[in-house]
Amino acid sequence: MYTSSDIKSNGYNYTAYYCEENIWRLCEKLIQSGGNLKAIFISNDRKAVPLWNQRLSDPLRNEGAVLWEYHVIALDGDSRIIYDFDSSIGFKVNFDKYVEMTFHPEWELDPIFQQKFRVIPAEVYLKTFASDRSHMINENGVWRRPPPPQSLISTPESKNNIQQFISMDSEVGWGKVMTLHEFISSV
């Protein structure tokens, strides 16, 4: 299994529990190479999506799944590579292997846990995403998890629109919302 120091040694910044910012900064670096890069928000209406083979997975609980409110990964559609800072499979993984080991499409999940995917072109993500990190502060004003050292991500139009990215309502936000099978077919 690789560690966060492996990611840093490859020139990428990583802060646990801030996948949206990790992927935003990754897209900022990778977009210079061109290609068909996308940011993918994974969630559902219940904000409870199981992902397997995550670094926080406990193989003795929930069949090794982590139940995230949301998770964010990147996809290079040309090379069919998934980037996931939190995957125990690896940081850069072949699309088919990642899907098989992370989502188990052959399993029939209870509908309340079925993953949905908001697929956003990286250029759009970089221009529109904003987070003031307030979703990571509890009711007592204390950080749930330590924030990244980098400055906040904002746009001229917004200081905080992360909920529009997390939402799986196709009438809200940017990109296209898909089911797991639609996502697999689109790549």
UniProtKB/TrEMBL annotation:
The keyword 4Fe-4S does not apply. Its EC number is 3.5.1.122. Transmembrane segments: none annotated. It is an enzyme of class 3 (hydrolase). One of its GO terms (molecular function) is protein-N-terminal glutamine amidohydrolase activity. GO terms for cellular component: cytosol; nucleus. This is Protein N-terminal glutamine amidohydrolase. It comes from Lepeophtheirus salmonis (Salmon louse). The lineage of its organism: Eukaryota, Metazoa, Ecdysozoa, Arthropoda, Crustacea.
